[in-house]
Specification:
Layout: E1 8-9, H1 23-30, E2 33-37, E3 43-47, H2 50-58, H3 94-105, H4 110-134, E4 138-139, H5 140-145, H6 147-157, H7 164-175, H8 182-205, H9 211-218, H10 228-259, H11 261-269, H12 274-284, E5 292-295, E6 300-302, E7 305-307, E8 312-315, H13 317-320, H14 355-372, E9 377-378, E10 400-402
Parallel strand pairs: 1-2, 3-8
Antiparallel strand pairs: 2-3, 4-10, 5-8, 6-7, 9-10
Length: 403
């Protein structure tokens, strides 16, 4: 049976941690608009070609509100971050969405990120000190990849870093599509909501130099600011988005660079390639997770296929990033690739707000590791690296290294 006649299970199972499933190339070539069955049993449409994914992500008619009665459920339990009530509080489109992005985006400018760099490097240095003191082999994900973005986002939100273990559990319940029951998810979200509510109230009493204080200082909707609920949910969203994705990406980037150690040696010989290496790691990442779901409130056409109103579309940015029609030698990791118009941060009005933060963290990690641990290597064969299962964002469960 050909691919366009069968219904694939999605996510597509894959045994290897760093390589793409062979179905991607086949789908792009023969069936770029494919029918898939989600973990919930509901059907959706999967897009794998660069131009199609870019078109849908940039089209404001395709909403991210998966709460419509005819939208596909991602999992039998619901789908965590993609269709929680919380996701509906931040404006999704139009002028309100632009207004929200403008207010929050002030914190994510290149200038702000440059100012944060020394503090990020200091955090990375301290974490590497702890890893080295613990002796080799160590786990680069647990030792550096996970704590660094948590410390940074806690700083930005004015949240005590000692609460970071609670955040990691709360964000995992948001982002894990299979591991938790509905009761566990609801309980964790209620705790998280209460915590952020208390934190925002404390900040209102005593404004600090952090993102939430700045949003509060603008005033409410009448003064051109956000409602209390929107500020609270913005804090939750940034905490979840700001650490889990980058923590996993640090692990995967280092996994890719050390799986073929000539890549690491190339960087050691020429650290000026750090910026393009980060972009290429983002493009080359074959384990980026679920992809972005979009709901179609109107009938539309993608790549010559009519998609009826009510279709749920999954955009696989990782598959699109391996499209030979968009990237020369797409299946090779080229640390000098430039320009590199990958879709890892999405496209259009919903492109990732924190992409400058993620890029800066990834660059700082490379700078500090090249300086501190030039002899770094994987402590297990690359084939033994394992994926994190069930997470909406892909990752490696551990990255064992020695130096």
């Amino acid at each position: 049976m050909s691919l366009d006649e069968q219904v694939l299970n999605y996510p597509i199972p894959n045994d290897t941690a760093l390589e793409p499933p062979p179905e991607w190339a086949e789908l792009r070539g023969k069936c770029p608009v494919a029918h898939v069955k989600l973990p919930s049993g509901d059907q959706a449409t999967l897009l794998t070609k660069y131009d199609d994914v870019k078109q849908v992500l940039a089209d404001p008619r395709f909403t991210r509100q998966l709460s419509a009665p005819d939208a596909a459920r991602l999992t039998a339990e619901g789908g965590g971050v993609f269709n929680s009530d919380v996701a509906n509080i931040i404006p999704d489109s139009g002028d309100e969405h632009l207004h929200w992005r403008r207010l929050v985006g002030k914190w994510f400018t290149a200038k702000r990120m440059a100012a944060l760099r020394p503090a990020m490097a200091k955090i990375a240095d301290d974490l590497i000190d702890e890893m080295v003191a613990g002796g080799a082999p160590g786990d680069l994900k647990a030792g550096l990849g996970f704590p660094l973005p948590v410390y940074v986002i806690c700083d930005m939100l004015g949240v005590p870093a000692e609460d970071r273990d609670r955040f990691s559990y709360w964000s995992d319940t948001f982002l894990n599509l299979t591991r938790y029951t509905k009761e566990e998810i609801d309980a964790a979200q209620a705790e998280f909501f209460q915590y952020m509510s208390d934190h925002v109230n404390a900040r209102r009493e005593q404004l600090g130099d952090d993102l939430l204080s700045e949003l509060l200082a603008v005033g409410g909707p009448d003064e051109g600011g956000l409602s209390d609920l929107q500020i609270l949910v913005t804090g939750m969203a940034l905490l979840v988005a700001g650490h889990e994705t980058t923590a996993n990406m640090i692990g995967k980037m280092m996994g890719m660079l050390l799986a073929d150690r000539t890549r690491w040696e190339r960087l050691l010989a020429d650290p000026s390639l750090i910026r393009t290496t980060v972009e290429e790691s983002l493009r080359f990442d074959a384990n980026s997770g679920f992809g972005l779901p979009r709901y179609l409130p109107v009938e539309t056409e993608v790549d010559g296929t009519v998609l009826p109103k009510g279709t749920t579309v999954i955009c696989s940015m990782a598959a699109a990033n391996r499209d030979e029609s968009a990237f020369e030698a797409a299946d090779e990791m080229d640390l000098t690739r430039s320009p590199n118009a990958h879709l890892s941060f999405g496209s259009g009005a919903h492109s990732c707000l924190g992409q400058s933060l993620a890029r800066t963290e990834l660059q700082v990690v490379l700078e500090v590791l090249l300086r501190r641990l030039p002899t770094l290597e994987l402590a297990v064969p690359a084939e033994e690296l394992r994926r994190v299962e069930g997470l909406a964002v892909g990752g490696l469960s551990t990255v064992p290294v020695r130096w």
